[in-house]
Specification:
Radius of gyration: 19 Å
Bound molecules: adenosine-5'-diphosphate
Number of strands: 8
Helix content: 40-55%
Largest sheet: 5 strands, mixed
């Protein structure tokens, strides 16, 4: 347990320390990109450096977030998180992403809300919806569904995208595991999204279920126990 804590602290500190130098580099790159004195031949390399430093910042932020979530303890049940607002925010973010499917539907089948930490739950929904956009062609469809039954609350993000091979399904929540290798990286993912989802759910006593078929689409369902519901 001690080794595990040392490892976690190291990752948290390293990501934190990397932030400031990265901010400086990005600041100068922005200035260079707008400087007329820079020869034309440098425009393209500077733009590539900007893209890559944005990617690096996203990685650092995700690593930091993951190390915070990994500490594992259950989140207190003293805050009500508005599920409808959270889903609406994730949809809005998705519509701002490039090449998003036109059809992103919301099906709210219950007025119940959740008990926990809003930023963490928002990150769960946003990551799942961003993935659905990333792995679904523009002509595909995404549905975000919230249902409640005797077992608890179920938040599902369904897409008609590329799907995941059966043997990859158990591994996609591992850090940096990518079912389709380079392609996922090109689409702007950090490879940490589903690990963040898994740990944030664990802190809410919830579980992630993945149903998927290669070439047909995927459904990611977050199952929350009844005592995480705020039934008004
Ligand atoms: P990434 O940043 O690479 O998307 P994630 O942890 O979010 O990292 O996802 C891990 C891998 O799971 C992805 O690289 C992709 O291969 C697969 N994956 C995740 N969501 C979907 C989805 N909705 N459809 C198809 N594949 C997916």
């Amino acid at each position: 347990r001690r080794v595990d804590r040392v490892r976690r602290d190291f990752i948290a500190n390293a990501s934190h320390e990397l932030r400031s130098p990265l901010t400086v580099i990005m600041g100068y790159l922005d200035a260079l990109a707008e400087d007329d004195r820079i020869p034309d031949g440098w425009k393209q390399p500077i733009s590539v450096m900007q893209d890559q430093s944005i990617r690096m910042r996203r990685l650092v932020e995700d690593l930091l977030q993951l190390s915070k979530l990994e500490s594992g303890q259950s989140v207190p049940k003293d805050h009500v998180v508005d599920v409808a607002a959270m889903i609406a925010a994730a949809r809005k973010e998705a519509l701002a992403l490039p090449e998003h499917p036109d059809s992103i539907e919301i099906e709210l089948q219950s007025p119940a809300n959740l008990l926990g930490e809003e930023t963490e739950l928002q990150s769960v929904v946003s990551n799942l919806v961003a993935n659905a956009v990333r792995y679904t062609p523009p002509e595909g469809e995404i549905t975000i569904r919230w249902t409640v039954d005797a077992d608890g609350g179920h938040l599902a993000v369904q897409d008609t995208g590329i799907g995941i091979a059966e043997e990859d399904i158990p591994r996609v929540t591992e850090r940096f595991y990518r079912a389709d290798g380079g392609r996922a990286r090109q689409r702007g993912g950090t490879g940490l999204g589903l690990a963040i989802v898994k740990y944030a759910l664990r802190r809410h006593d919830a579980e992630l279920e993945i149903q998927s078929r290669l070439g047909q689409g995927s459904t990611f369902v977050c199952h929350f126990p009844r005592d995480r519901l705020a039934l008004s």
